[in-house]
Amino acid sequence: xxxxxxxxxxxxxxxxxxxxxxxxxxxxxxxxxxxxxxxxxxxxxxxxxxxxxxxxxxxxxxxxxxxxxxxxxxxxxxxxxxxxxxxxxxxxxxxxxxxxxxxxxxxxxxxxxxxxxxxxxxxxxxxxxxxxxxxxxxxxxxxxxxxxxxxxxxxxxxxxxxxxxxxxxxxxxxxxxxxxxxxxxxxxxxxxxxxxxxx
Length: 199
Fold this sequence. Notes:
The protein folds into two domains: about 1-45, no CATH class; about 55-199, Alpha-Beta Plaits, CATH 3.30.70. The protein is about 25% helix and about 25% strand. It has helices at about 15-30, 70-75, 95-115, 170-180, and strands at about 30-35, 35-40, 55-60, 70, 90, 135-145, 150-165, 195-199. The strands form three sheets. It has a four-stranded antiparallel sheet, with no helix packed on it. A two-stranded antiparallel ribbon has the order 1-2. The radius of gyration is 18 Å and the shape is globular.
């Protein structure tokens, strides 16, 4: 990056009021710093991504790496060798898709419980998969600063997902994933997804 470069920053959240406060603050104070890099906010534009009505199809890609960890008490269930202790195992392609899909769904269930009304079914309470296909683009390890002065290395993955919206519940689940991200540590910017193609 060089002085004068333009960048677009996306801020996602399931709470629209929170996003409105962020936007108002950026409009009041146009200086925006990322670590020690100063930026000037030229414009704030609201976007409302939506996978579409039931019957709509599309492609979603990860914009940032997805973190999926398998808890030690589930490793036997997936035939994954666990090194011992209470440390979770980072998902890798050799672990097969079952633990990845299950952990992704369980994580989205937690977000659904937090942000959606209790009477609406969560992702694991429906008969359909979240995505129709899962195409792994790559896996990689990256050091991440989890708190000030503490860095951890995470094994992440990048994906392309195909979907067809089954019903209103499925639409809500997919849109929730667009707002909150998928997998773990979304607060660190991991697991955010974007619609790259839709009909």
